[in-house]
Amino acid sequence: MSGKPARWLRIVVPVVLILVWLVLAGFGGPTFGKLSGVSSNDQAAFLPASAESTKVQDWQKRFTDSTAIPAIVVVQADEKIPAADLAQYAQLGSRLGEVDGVQPPESGQSSSVAGPIPSDDGRAVEFIVPIADSDEVKTVVADLRGVLKDELPSGTQGWVTGPAGLTADLVNAFGGIDGILLLVAVAAVFVILLLVYRALLLPFLVLLTSVFALCAAILVVYLFALWGWIKLSGQSQGILSILVIGAATDYSLLLVARYREALEQNESRWTAILRAWKAAFEPILASGVTVILALLCLLFSDLNSNKSLGPIAAIGIVFSLLSALTLLPTLLAVFGRAAFWPFRPTYAEHAHEHRHADAEQVPGLAGIRGIWRRVGTLIARRPRITWIVSCLVLAACALGLTQLKANGVEQTDLVLSQSDAADGQKILAKHFDAGSGSPVLIVARESDADAVLAAVEKTDGIASATVYAGNVRPQSAQDGASQGGRPGAAPAPAPEPIVKDGRVLIQATLDSEPDSAQAEQVVRDLRETLPSTDSDVLVGGVTAIALDTNVTAQSDLAKIIPIVLGVILIILMLLLRSILAPVLLIGSVVLSYAAALGVSALVFNHLFGFPGADAAVPLFGFVFLVALGVDYNIFLMTRVREESLRIGTRPGILRGLGLTGSVITSAGIVLAATFAALAVIPILFLVQIAFIVAFGVLLDTVLVRSLLVPALSYDIGKAIWWPSRLWREDKVRTKPVESAR
Fold first, then answer.
1. Is pLDDT of 393 > 90?
2. Is 349 helix (H, G, I), strand (E, B) or coil?
3. Which residues contact 278 (CB under 8 A, 6 or more apart)?
């Protein structure tokens, strides 16, 4: 390893590696814009098959061949609408039904649009518009809004809301995932790298490594989603981009730091890159494998949105690892010291042999200057006070967990930017039963249908309920449109209910908005009381889907946390050849996670005024913070172990901290900046994840890794390596340090 590799290797290997990555980037780059075509933001698609609402969905498909998503168009007038004017509104309904993508009418119907349905106060009408093309909801809803803009009667306002309207606004909010998110993240990383390296070329090499890794990851994820192997959503797409850029940059920072150090000790850039690669390989590989396995633990999740994020994010980390260990070393070897221009590291022959020769008051800090020398001196003299105060600060922050509200939020609160659908829901609730258009669906035995229907109608929170008899438009709408509201018209005979395999479908309209806490309580009440009437009854619908999603997410949190901690603990034990050190490291990152989540809860409630948090937020925050927090401890403790083998545990702790301090702090700032970029997407879930991870990474980098872990390790001494050989054979004198304490 001391000599340069053969000349042909110095030519062939770099050329082959660069060509391979160019090919991957060439194929992967164009797929950025195609990801939205293979992704879905449908909440129901991510529920497990065992969920009750999923079973109801399966039954619903037997009652109707339609997979239409209802859009609710609500029109509010400045004054009470005369009954005679309903015919004019019927023309608007016909025009809405002509929009491309709206379900065509069935035989005998002039339009598939139900309405106009007048409100009891006479100030509004609503239309229920079934959208058949579920892949183009965004486009169809935009066209419906265009019709309203052009053809609304004077003195009225109109909104497109309901499940289709809310979905369209959510898709619109995700629109910046492919462009602005990546642009902001890359720009933030580039500025930080310029400040860290004070070099012009090196930031481009590091960013090129990250972007190429992302291109390759995107290509694989796109193909897996296209083949149906994974389910891709907008949130997992955004997290993938951020995770790859941040992780690849972090690994690159560690390698570059080792390379600069090697260039000062070796004249040949080839020898230097080989030594740097050998020194950085183990911690980078261990960090990457830890994150990959932690992410794959999400496969144990019951919620398919969590389960799908595991392999998607793991694919990203795989390519981050590969690029940092293959492409970046190649680029650094090709450019050599020129990569650091204008502050090129110079080779000082024999200087490295005397780097520990100068006398130091505190053993282990030889050659360490600046802030990390002062931190090391503090730890050496007051280790116990340092780690106890650090723990108390983290524990105080963790008290905010008592204010965490992670029980899900209403769908109207998911989009933080202006939402026409959210505004429409408020108008709908003002004039109609708020749950119209998104009924609770109950599947019951035909023999018990009347009893179940009666029990549903008596349930608090239910405005009305009917047994499904096909796509029949409400009689009030038909009368109002065709007869101008003329009284005395004979009601049409009630159609026969549709029966499938001995079951009927009951549709119950809620008093409250279908995504509200009150609506979810109605679903709980129905599931508790109806089985006494029909033991096989199933309760589903939009509200039940949201409820089942939250319940499953909370169950996943309790299941995944111990699995992740167990996997990481085993990896750390194998890496550090110790039991005590890994246990303490795991404890430190868990405490750091609790502190980050506690502070986040206070910020969300009292600073940002958020209505709550998605039930999956604590789980995602845990997986990212624990896995990435262990990353930095791996960077630190592998270097500490390396130095401890040479100069003893306590001096090795101080020297390892001093040598890794600046690079790990830079890595933490980079990762925090990339996750903070998620906040540019106006989705509540992503903004909350952005804050939790960004704040948590900074907290872990500045407090946990810089003070708590080294101070606690220093206080324990060589026993930190128990029961490894290093614990038994560490005989380096530490009396000067102990007396200084």
1. yes
2. coil
3. 1
H or E segment and range at residue 598 = helix 580-602
Given a cut of 90, is residue 694 above it in pLDDT?
yes
Q: Other C-beta atoms within 10 Å of 6: how many? A: 9
Closest CA to 369 of 693, 655, 739, 708: 655
pTM, two decimals, is 0.83
- What's the confidence (pLDDT) of residue 361? 57
Using one digit for the tens of pLDDT, what is the confidence trace for 220-236?
999 988 888 888 877 78
SS3 (DSSP) at 201 = coil
Q: Which residues of 387-414 are buried (b: 16+ CB within 10 A; e: fewer)?
A: beebbeebeebbebbeebebebbbbbbb
**CA distances for 208 relative to 199, 459, 560, angstroms:** 15, 61, 34
Neighbours of 692 (CB within 10 A): 27
pLDDT at 43 over 80: no
- pLDDT > 80? residue 298: yes
> Is residue 113 scored above 70 in pLDDT?
yes
More confident residue, 487 or 500: 500
Which structure tokens are listed for 426? 């408020």
515-570 confidence digits (pLDDT tens) = 778 888 999 999 999 998 888 889 988 888 888 888 888 888 889 999 999 999 99
Of 613, 615, 618, the closest CA to residue 696 belongs to: 618
Strands 124-131 and 69-77: antiparallel
Q: Cβ(364)–Cβ(650) under 8 Å?
A: yes
- Mean of the per-residue pLDDT values for the chain? 83
Bridge partners (DSSP) listed for residue 156: 77
Q: Going edge to edge, which strands form the sheet with 440-445?
A: 462-467, 503-510, 440-445, 538-541
Please check whether residue 145 is in contact with residue 420, taking contact to mean a CB–CB distance below 8 angstroms: yes
Distance in angstroms (rounded) separating the CA atoms of residues 501 and 599: 53
Query: What backbone phi and psi angles, to 5 degrees, belong to 511?
Result: -70, -35
Confidence (pLDDT) at 392? 96
Q: Which helix (H) or strand (E) holds 467?
A: strand 462-467
DSSP 8-state symbol, 539: E
**DSSP state letter for 412:** G
Give the C-alpha distances (Å, rounded to integers) separating 428 from 15, 75, 433, 438, 620. Answer: 64, 9, 7, 12, 34
Count other Cβ atoms within 10 Å, centred on residue 486.
11
Tell me the pLDDT band of 105, cut-offs 50, 70 and 90.
Answer: confident
pLDDT tens digit sequence for 633-649: 888 888 888 888 888 88
Contact between 574 and 321 under an 8 Å Cβ cutoff? The reply is no
Task: Tell me what pLDDT residue 394 has.
Answer: 95
Look at the block and give the residue holding tokens 């024999």: 350
Share of the chain above pLDDT 70, in %: 87
478 neighbors 108 (Cβ within 8 angstroms)? no
Tokens 């340090």 — which residue?
737
If you ran DSSP here, which 8-state letter would residue 607 be given?
I
Per DSSP, 498 falls in state P
DSSP 643-706: HHHHH-HHHHHHHHHHHHHHHHHHHHHHHHHHHHGGGGS-BHHHHHHHHHHHHHHHHIIIIIII
Rounded CA separation 493/149 (Å): 37
Beta bridge mates, 540: 441
CB 128, CB 113: distance < 8 Å: yes
